[in-house]
Amino acid sequence: MPVGIYLYEIDESFGPNILAEYYLAQENKIHPEILKDFEEKHIQKEFLDTICWREDLRFYSSKISAESIERDNLFLGFVFKKDEDLVSLKSILNNIAAKVVKEFSKDKGKLEALLKKEFDSIFTLMEKLKEPTMIKDTINDKTKKMLDDGKLQEARELIDLGEDVPEKLSEEIKLAEKLLNDKFYKKARKSFLKAAELANIIQENDVVLFLTSKADQVEKFPDLIKDRENMHRDMEKKIEELQHNKLHLYHELIRPVDALINISNLFEDQELTISLIELLNNFKRADQLAKELFNLDTKIKEHFEKL
């Protein structure tokens, strides 16, 4: 479960600005320096999504597709513990982003009420995915409403489906997760989509959206692995060139390391992520020192020419 959610915009002149936020505890609140880090990655490096670590917390940010409300600078993010499943959380965030666009308001109170409502619904969704009896309970609620509305035939059909579909759905989700953990990505995607079909049969729309979104993400994993391998090879070449005092290459290594951090987070590779973050910090320091050395070299040449 995440421990916080936030919606913000990045103004061209004034930078990041929180529009609405909700946290289980104030110590989980996003800090201005993290927002500045997001601004650099989203705007300057043009990342659609990115992540930032602070001790045992992770701050995730994703750009929202909001052309329908004429907004090109909206971002939605989660705060979550380092051992959470980012792929699942991204799927949930995609669903919430669509609702934020649909119900967007300039009223901060309304936006924060929307975020809180969606945040609270995450717990229900996660429990449904784990426990078939919860889905059976929601089916019972739906059938009662159908009976009250006089929809007897539809109620009977849903009752019949509720006998075995929730169990099948639970088993299919477990299979999909196992296939994903075993890195059989094509089979995992197929299994998530099959689970989504089962959820659709019993009208569990939030579960359908979650599973189809997760299938879409898993589909990208083979390409992400290829991207990671290509970036790793390119970095190796640049690091070799650095041995010949081409210090400007430190700056060129920062972006691919940022990208590798995003990918390693998706694959829940915490040890690699920590190593990459340390590498990124070293590259940034080396880049700063290289710039200082270049400026100093320029001054030395200027003084030497005056001799």
Structural account:
With 307 residues, the protein is α+β, with helices and mostly antiparallel strands. The protein has 3 domains: 2-128, Longin domain (Beta-Lactamase); 131-219; 222-305. Helix content is 68%, strand content 13%. It contains 10 helices and 5 strands, in the order ββαβββααααααααα. The chain has a 5-stranded antiparallel sheet. Strand 3 and strand 4 (57-63) form a beta hairpin. Helix 2 crosses helix 7 and helix 3 crosses helix 4 (132-148). It is elongated and about 95 Å long.
**Coarse structural class:** alpha+beta
pLDDT averaged over residues:
84
Rg, nearest Å: 24 Å
Total strands: the figure is 5
DSSP strand content: 5-15%
Give the strand order, joined by hyphens, for the main sheet. Answer: 2-1-5-4-3
**CATH homologous superfamily grouping of the largest domain:** Longin domain
Low-confidence stretches: none
Oligomer: single chain
The H/E string reads: EEHEEEHHHHHHHHH
How far apart are the termini?
Answer: 67 Å
CATH class wording of the largest domain: Alpha Beta
Helicity range: 55-70%
Can you tell me the CATH architecture of the largest domain?
A: 2-Layer Sandwich
- Biggest sheet record: 5 strands, antiparallel
For the record, the count of structural domains works out to 3
Topology of this structure?
Elements: E1 2-11, E2 15-23, H1 32-44, E3 49-54, E4 57-63, E5 74-81, H2 86-102, H3 108-130, H4 132-148, H5 152-181, H6 185-201, H7 205-219, H8 221-242, H9 249-266, H10 270-305
Antiparallel strand pairs: 1-2, 1-5, 3-4, 4-5
Helix pairs in contact: 2-7, 3-4, 4-5, 5-6, 6-7, 8-9, 9-10
